[in-house]
Design goal:
It is a single chain. This protein is low in regular secondary structure. It has a single domain, classed as Medium-chain alcohol dehydrogenases, catalytic domain (Quinone Oxidoreductase, Chain A, domain 1). The chain has two helices and five strands. The longest helix has 6 residues. It is globular. The termini are far apart. The structure holds zinc ion.
Length: about 130
């Protein structure tokens, strides 16, 4: 992470969020449009710590959550030709729309934003009702 965090601007922040899934990628198996989710941090799911059930200690935690981009250095965000840093906590949920990996979308009550006996749908924004 050359240059330190102050060199990564402009950036979209937002470390945890809640919302409704608008679309999913081809490889997504457990989510569908309309699902209510809570967003949490990113982890690789492959390292020894992730496989031991401790994704918050993932060996790639810093690069996946604080580098301002994807682990390969790219960013999903731009404005014209200008790069916009993001992927903060893996998803930058302060934006109107967030892009998150499947493992960051929690429908249960296991994410650190959802440690509650209440259903996740109660934490997300209320869906607009058709007139
Ligand atoms: Zn990991």
């Amino acid at each position: 992470m050359a240059g330190g965090p102050r060199s990564r601007v402009p950036i979209v922040l937002g470390h945890e969020g809640a919302g409704v899934v608008e679309a999913v990628g081809a490889g997504v198996r457990t989510l569908a449009p309309g699902d209510h989710v809570v967003l949490t941090f990113d982890s690789c799911g492959l390292c020894d710590r992730c496989r031991a059930g401790s994704p918050s200690y993932c060996r790639e935690f810093t690069v996946r959550n604080f580098s301002g981009g994807r682990p390969d250095g790219s960013s999903a965000l731009s404005q014209g030709e200008q790069r916009i840093y993001g992927h903060y906590f893996g998803q930058s949920s302060f934006a109107t729309y967030a892009i998150a990996r499947e493992n960051e979308c929690d429908q249960g009550a296991t994410g650190c934003a959802a440690r509650s006996p209440w259903p996740v749908r109660l934490w997300g924004p209320k869906r607009a009702q058709a007139p």
